[in-house]
Input
Amino acid sequence: MISEKMKKLVGGSSAIRAMFEEGKRLAAIYGRENVYDYSLGNPNFPAPAAVNDAIRAVLDEVDSTVVHGYMSNAGFDDVRQTVAESLNRRFGTAFAGKNILMSVGAAGALHVILKVLLNPGDEVLTFAPYFVEYGNYVGNYDGVLRAIPVDAATFQPDPEALAAAVTAKTRAVIINNPNNPTGVIYSEETVKKLAAVLERKSEEFGAPIYLLADEPYRELAYDGLEVPFLTKYYRNTAVCYSWSKSLSLPGERIGYLVLPDELDGAEEIIAAASIANRMLGFINAPSLMQLAVARCLDCEPNLSGYDANRRLLYEGLTKLGFEPVKPQGTFYLWLKSPEPDEKKFVEKGKSHNILMVAGSAFAWPGYVRLAYCVSEDMIRRSLPAFAKLAAEYGLK
Amino acid sequence: MISEKMKKLVGGSSAIRAMFEEGKRLAAIYGRENVYDYSLGNPNFPAPAAVNDAIRAVLDEVDSTVVHGYMSNAGFDDVRQTVAESLNRRFGTAFAGKNILMSVGAAGALHVILKVLLNPGDEVLTFAPYFVEYGNYVGNYDGVLRAIPVDAATFQPDPEALAAAVTAKTRAVIINNPNNPTGVIYSEETVKKLAAVLERKSEEFGAPIYLLADEPYRELAYDGLEVPFLTKYYRNTAVCYSWSKSLSLPGERIGYLVLPDELDGAEEIIAAASIANRMLGFINAPSLMQLAVARCLDCEPNLSGYDANRRLLYEGLTKLGFEPVKPQGTFYLWLKSPEPDEKKFVEKGKSHNILMVAGSAFAWPGYVRLAYCVSEDMIRRSLPAFAKLAAEYGLK
Output
């Protein structure tokens, strides 16, 4: 009774979400403390106290019909202005309120810009491994997502591979930096080279190729590493941001889309984005949360907490003989499967109550993803289970 | 630089939203108190105090990682269960939590069910006058919306017209009751006849025609009138609900989709809806608001306040010689234009700082819509302006 498109999806569904549901099932059987769930990017640290304080203050100070009411589809004017100024302070940009559209998370922002840009059959490129839901997002607008493998040694995008992949149909490139699932940060050097390729190819094909920066993990960068702000390197860049990870608000669906004046067709794109936000059913980003996050723009994530988790897990797994990629950002660890078929590795993990997501779910078999946005205690308790798993493979 | 589909929309845009922006512009020039803005369905009454109390209580009592975290894409299990039980108490239904999907408002719920049901080229029927955004919603999934005129005297749907309009391609019928823009409530008698037509036609074409009940105005029914709960009259009904109007929370984007077990293909539809909610970019309904509204299910709208507005405006306009349809529900008044081209009437109204929405925006020229979810005081102050407008037309 469901549509043909949905039939395929119900079959495939999301491996990540399936694992999340599996975690709930195992926890019911074995007790939550005996399940080591590394499946979902659901932040373990609570939102900074400033967030709930801001929510309470908004409720106390602002008229209810404003707090909970409709505003322009692009968001509250003052919130947009405040976000623009915050970005300008942090990145030396020159955005005004009109360059910001408040969105239902980064996913909502991506949908809005894809709806605005794509004609049926247009191609969108991204770098694998990648968040496979991108394929569904692009497919919603009858575009075609094509993934370009990153350099298998460094997990950095390969500019020459990008150059080879661009065609006359390429309308946009999605870059997720810091990267889910690898935890790698695309360096300034990489970004400059990618920008040069896109400039050259836009000129060659006589039409702009838009860069869509998907950046929910922007603030999660370790060891003092910088995450290049892409509008400064490439003119035709739109930024999709979410406070889901930085402020531990994934359930609230609050983020924004940056549409700089420098975009080819900026005025038209900005007007269309506001309409797209409405007609895709979002209408507007949740109002109370818009007002609350605008008061928390200087709040910082619990970076030291995630860093402690990162070190504990990375060092623990390394000692056991596993081969993890050292995460530079995000709260994901990308681990080489000890056997070629990582799905079997995931299954063996499950028999020790360890939940990991197979790399196939990111179009990159042979690896698994561990989300370490979990309690440090869970990581400690999981290491003996990993030790048993390592023993099964005869590691070390 | 934008897609072909969006180009058409940027040109057309929303007449309602354009009026909303126009209202902000006029208020800046003439002062808010001198603009009579009847354009937007943005509730004037604040949310019941219980809503903000519930938000504060949730923040105080529930762990932050739960309040603001991811949950299953369909919503918090306990919230879904609570909503189901509330519906069962009110309507004598027998829903379980699994029959409820928490959504980003009624618009989000409509998008989810349309995504689940529609193949390209499928037809969706609705009754004109109607919320024209339905056309965009259906178009998002490459369906075709066709509107059937209601009876021009009663503004009730005509079952025979429905029977004549159904084809082998008809996949769904959207019914908005109480109705935006007419303020009419489709009676039980009408509903029974529509259900009989759909039963007959489903059998004739050998495939179910789904009824999509869009019900954000359910609780806004005056003079003790009952709004039939459609799942009780027609098996293949999905209900799209929002607390936007009943609890004055339009900016928060919180509602639900009811998918009864009695639907043909219920199991498949329920599974697909959860995936659609995720892959359309909603991911899930805003988490804090899910938890808050679950504590406010017995809250009632300020019906007496809207009723006072309704009487004041209806009687005021009638006395001036206008011909309004007496609203039975919603907070809209449907007014016959004193000249055939209601767009000219809207323009003349604007010259008196009265903002109304042309019926053409609802595919029904010759009428205008006035949203009386405004202060009683604004209605009183607007009547002298309406008197001048009436004089221009030589009414009474």
